[in-house]
Amino acid sequence: MIQLTGLTKRHGEVLAVDDLTFTVRPGLVTGFPGLARSVSVARHCVRSVLAAAGHQNVDGALLVVSELVGNAVVHTVSGLAGGLVTVDIREIGQNMARIDVIDQGASTAPQVCESSDTASSGRGLRLVEETAVRWGVRDDSLGGKAVWAEVLTTEDTPVALIDASIWAVEEDAKA
């Protein structure tokens, strides 16, 4: 069980979370609105929960939660008005965490895509695949999908390296 006290998160001038205190028990899910700004709030909560539990390197977990929550918001019913994305954080020993992101359903199943060097999207699940020890998709009992990933959280855990060419493409587009 992990206890968080006094969690605060700002988005620029906007106060998104103020002095939030909660307890995270294994299997307990936390819901976020199906909005793009929920990605950073979910990431902040995951960072706080794992750090409070003593995990040393949570960068991989943060990358995974960013990609999975972002995908749920963009590609599923969760991203529609009133939609919800749920995040379940579980420890698997002292050096690993499992993150499940549960959406409200979609007409397609999550899968790794092949994207071109010039594409501005389509790399999310590839990053999850490169970062996680294991990952997968399962049906949720309420009709959605749960995409899960198990991520190492030791000090020397490498995080997936993003091909630098995608940044060059973005810079070229700005010029």
From TrEMBL:
Organism of this sequence: Nonomuraea cypriaca
A Pfam family the protein falls into: HATPase_c_2
Keyword Kinase: yes
A GO term, aspect molecular function: protein serine/threonine kinase activity
Histidine kinase/HSP90-like ATPase domain boundaries: 33-137
Keyword annotations: ATP-binding, Kinase, Nucleotide-binding, Serine/threonine-protein kinase, Transferase
Top-level lineage group: Bacteria
Signal peptide span: none
Protein name, per record: ATP-binding protein
